[in-house]
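Good morning C.,

I know you're traveling, so I'll keep this short. The sequence:
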Amino acid sequence: MRVRTASFVLPTLLASLIAIAVACRPAKAPPSSSPDDADGSAPTSGSDGGASPEADEAHPVPAGGSEGSSAAAGGGSALAAVLVTDPAEVQKIFDAAKAAPKAVTKPNGVAGAGPLAKGVRELAKTAASGMKADGPLATGKLEEKKNLRTEITLKPGRCYTVVGYSAKVTDLDLYLLLPPGVLSGQDTTDDNKPVIGKTPDAMCPVFKSAVKYTLDIVADQGAGEFAVQLYSKKAPKKDK
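The tokens, ready to paste straight into the viewer:
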């Protein structure tokens, strides 16, 4: 009889202890939220919810660091400073450049003895410090408010500066453009010595292949002959 009572009480006691342990166990905490979930921000670039940095090589990403300033304009990424940010105005500049006649190009023309070539070389000593002429010299004669265009190719692994000069055009403007209407850089002065990507803020594209740009050359004030030269140097190595 005593044995039967012990056999009955022990299982009952064990069952009670288990029930008490289950009842006292803390509830499972919900999964912790990431910082992005907490503030409602969108996925970062390169994730399934966003565009990869390599999604569009026609719109190069500006280089970081001291080489290569950047600004957004017209829906693309700029390689140098831009002042015109209204997409409609950028499109007008692009359309005008596309319709403009081509400037005359002279291989190794910047080494010539003429005053235009000399003016470009003198300006390049400070504006494109440490660089060498890359490609032909673009020249021509402009009436006030008229423009000419030339094509320049920028390659990965190099840094670039565009240098212009005129003795007669008092405000010579330069616009670096990509189709269908992206402003990638422009000069920021109202004078006869326009520069895009002036040292130390040279344009250092990081895309994977060469990209051809249209360079629009505009006589905003004054008229006369001009010369424009692309300069380049090897891009500095990035710190790992």
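Safe travels,
E.
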